[in-house]
Amino acid sequence: MDKQNLNFNRILLKISGEVLSGDKKFGIDPTLTQKISKKIKTLHDLNIQIGIVIGGGNIFRGMAVSEQGMDRVPADYVGMMATLMNSVALQSELEKLGCDTRVMSALSVTQLAEPYIRRRATRHLEKKRIVIFAGGTGNPYFTTDTAAALRGIEIKADVIIKGTKVDGIYSSDPVKDKNAVKYDNLTFKEVIEKELKVMDLTAFTLCKENNLPIVVLNINDKDCLSSLVQYKKIGTLVS
Length: 239
What we know:
Layout: E1 10-15, H1 17-21, H2 30-45, E2 49-54, H3 62-67, H4 72-96, E3 101-105, E4 114-115, H5 118-126, E5 130-134, H6 144-154, E6 159-164, E7 169-170, E8 182-183, E9 185-186, H7 188-193, H8 201-209, E10 214-218, H9 224-229, E11 236-238
Parallel strand pairs: 1-2, 1-6, 2-5, 3-4, 3-5, 6-10, 9-11
Antiparallel strand pairs: 7-8, 10-11
Helix pairs in contact: 2-4, 6-8
């Protein structure tokens, strides 16, 4: 399968929390959040239905903190609340641009977000509302990658687009290895055989078993999302 064969009617965009912090390394950079929102709006203007999952690593990393002695369960719940903060910040920027947006949370925080109900989420998408899925899966021990895979399957997305700081999947870390080779297309089987880190294993297995393609790209690249849906050569496709 190549990008020409992908259907971009409904997508699930996964953004890492670190992307929102920019050069600050911590917190939310309003300028960067605005830039990402403008890229999302270009897809919205093309009548593409958009679901979004954002990580919380720019505010709190449950797994990292639990390694330092904090109990894993409360650490993960704090991480889920961090994703809610990022989701509300992104919603604010998208609505400034005129995009009708809903935050749906797996955690119950009624003042900020609707509870996640699959049928209601699908209805929002059909009405051309952008839906941001916050709170991860609502359960500890699962990453936001897994939440993205799960929500992508539930809303019957055509593809998961994973926006990172790297412009695709490489044979090794391109920051540390100058000889790292970039892949344009990979199969799920090749990713497993080459032991490439695309998503965590639970998320990746969910995508593989449900035949949900994944595109990895650099969310900071200019026009990256609009270029992708216009079938230009960008990022790495796993299918």
